[in-house]
Design goal:
This protein is of the alpha/beta class. It contains 17 helices and 22 strands. β12, α9 and β13 form a beta-alpha-beta unit.
Length: 557
């Protein structure tokens, strides 16, 4: 494998709106991020991904961009962004931004011009189509519910939006549009940006016939991803995108990809792939309901273990993946993947160890390093997320009570990850001096950075040790390029694997069960590298793991 500058890096996702408010308006901002760069450096972070900070009406929290060249006033100024780049560079850290180019905001100049002249040049920047017999052009349901087609006022046309109606899809078959997008991407890279996290990129290829599909719900609609899965040719668009932009700057790119065809993995992230890496959503997929959040299944440990193992084995044949426990679109991992008895500091450390030491690029989401958890929501009015409100209504329409619908959203809402970062036990968790844009988790007096800074056994200080081990001179090679080899798959509650090179063999073993488990060791142990329960005694022929215990051992090779 050709070695790249980003292979041994650890990344951290910032959700700017919820990270730190420096000016008392209740919204996190760039100045707040700049003030915490030393904190991130102390954690061992190399790459910082900022969720969208572009100008936006914030219908979908900035994933509806109205000006790709402007910083939203809520977050600060372009001068402050340039200061962030400069200060990051001083600390040998890299900044990447969200790249949202499947769609834009309906307030973008391009779409406003399209509405003004629905048969003109800018209309072809989007998908304007005539309806069929008084109905939309096809029966696609958007990711946020309802039809993907919205009427164009004063015409018999509709425009396509696979997300909210305020997020019209861009027409990737239009060379003039592509030229505009490439120019914009290169402008940011020219500023010193290290790369991008690329949003919803699989959706850019459309079947221009927009055929109907068999309805899969009582609304008579079919999920729009069925069209995405059925169409070919997205690779050609992605390769052209790479050659016109990322490749020129040796940029780091991490793609959000769902609905990819099985045989496309090597072309996406293999040698000279379209992207540097892509997120592993295999565990996330386990709690996707058949109809919505209201019938989302609980996570089964064995299925979770199998999903991680299978993904690791598949991806290591061709490239690197980006490993996550949570992000801005998912509930908190501690609340999602750990049973009730394990939702404690030991279990949090265990889950983090298993994820960070996998093969691939670890992505830490803000607050993960202190073990932030899902929030208790008291009513649907407390939510801000557009998707949560749609899912609440979907549950009601399916016959659930208001209490049951609220429970489903409490468990699955994206707002669980968007509550303000918990910096201290001061009012509003030290996030803001005024009213925060979204409620703060009630547990902030107990779970916060300040408390954990002063506790050598805290989740935060454990994460520092964990990342330090991964990046240490002694183990960097094996944790970056070592093969992933699953172990103890015949057990009921153990998640274990080896990371191996020709010179080293490391065992990572974790007990997700409620009772102590014992393993017969396959190799002699040289020494204990890391333990979440401060176990330093070298095990001999067998290994006993208490509930929620994880240990990292160097084995004889």
């Amino acid at each position: 494998m050709k070695r790249k500058w980003w292979h041994d890096k650890v990344a951290y996702q910032i959700y700017p709106k919820s990270f730190l408010d420096s000016n008392g308006d209740g919204i996190g901002d760039l100045r707040g991020i700049i003030s915490k760069l030393d904190y991130l450096k102390s954690l061992g972070i190399d790459i910082v991904w900022l969720s969208p900070i572009y100008k936006s009406p914030f219908v979908d929290q900035g994933y509806d961009i109205s000006d790709y060249y402007a910083i939203a006033e809520e977050f600060g100024t372009m001068e402050e962004f340039e200061e962030l780049l400069a200060e990051s560079k001083k600390r040998d850290m890299h900044i990447i931004m969200d790249l949202v180019i499947n769609h834009c905001s309906d307030q973008h100049e391009w779409f406003q011009k399209a509405l003004a002249d629905p048969y003109g040049e800018y209309a072809d920047f989007f998908y304007f189509r005539k309806g069929k017999n008084g109905n939309p052009p096809s029966n696609y349901r958007s990711y946020f519910g309802g039809s993907c087609w919205e009427p164009v006022p004063g015409t018999d046309l509709y425009y396509l939006h696979m997300f909210a109606k305020e997020q019209p899809d861009l027409n990737w078959e239009n060379p003039k549009l592509l030229e505009q997008l490439y120019q914009m991407i290169n402008w940011w890279l020219g500023k010193g940006l290290a790369g991008f996290r690329i949003d919803a990129i699989i959706n850019i290829k459309k079947d221009l016939a927009f055929p109907d599909y068999e309805p899969d719900g009582p609304d008579g609609l079919a999920a729009c991803w069925k069209m995405v899965e059925s169409v070919d040719g997205v690779g050609d668009l992605l390769e052209t995108l790479k050659k016109n932009t990322f490749q020129k700057y040796d940029a780091f790119t991490v793609a959000e990809v769902f609905n990819m065809k099985e045989d496309e993995l090597p072309s996406f992230i293999g040698k000279d792939g379209h992207f540097s890496t892509m997120f592993d959503f295999s565990a996330h997929a386990l709690s996707i309901g058949g109809n919505g959040w209201y019938d989302a299944p609980d996570i089964d440990f064995k299925k979770w273990r199998e999903s991680i193992v299978n993904s690791q084995l598949k991806v290591q044949k061709c490239g690197f993946e980006a490993n996550i426990i949570e992000n801005h679109d998912e509930p908190r991992g501690v609340s999602r993947y750990l049973p009730n008895y394990a939702q404690n500091p030991a279990g949090t450390k265990m889950l983090g160890t298993v994820s960070v030491l996998l093969r691939g690029i670890p992505f830490i989401y803000q607050g993960q390093e202190i073990g932030m958890q899902n929030t208790k929501w008291n009513s649907v009015e407390e939510f801000n997320d557009i998707n949560t409100k749609d899912q609440y209504q979907l549950a009601l329409d399916a016959g659930l009570s208001e209490e049951e619908a609220l429970y489903a959203c409490t468990k699955m809402s994206r707002d669980n990850a968007r509550t303000p970062m918990q910096w201290s036990d001061l009012e509003n968790a030290g996030f803001t001096t005024k009213t925060p844009w979204l409620k703060v988790n009630d547990n902030y007096p107990k779970i916060n950075v300040k408390n954990q800074e002063n506790d050598p056994d805290s989740v935060l200080n454990y994460y520092r040790k964990l990342i330090g081990v991964r990046k240490s001179a002694e183990y960097k090679e094996v944790f970056t390029y070592g093969e992933f080899v699953p172990a103890y798959l015949d057990t009921e509650s153990i998640m274990a694997y080896y990371r191996e090179t020709d010179e080293q063999r490391i065992l990572v073993a974790a007990n997700f069960g409620e009772n102590t488990a014992e393993l017969n060791l396959d190799y002699d142990i040289r020494h204990v590298i890391l333990s979440n329960m401060n176990q330093s005694t070298k095990p001999q022929r067998s290994l006993k793991l208490k509930s929620c215990e994880v240990i990292v051992l160097e084995c004889e090779k």
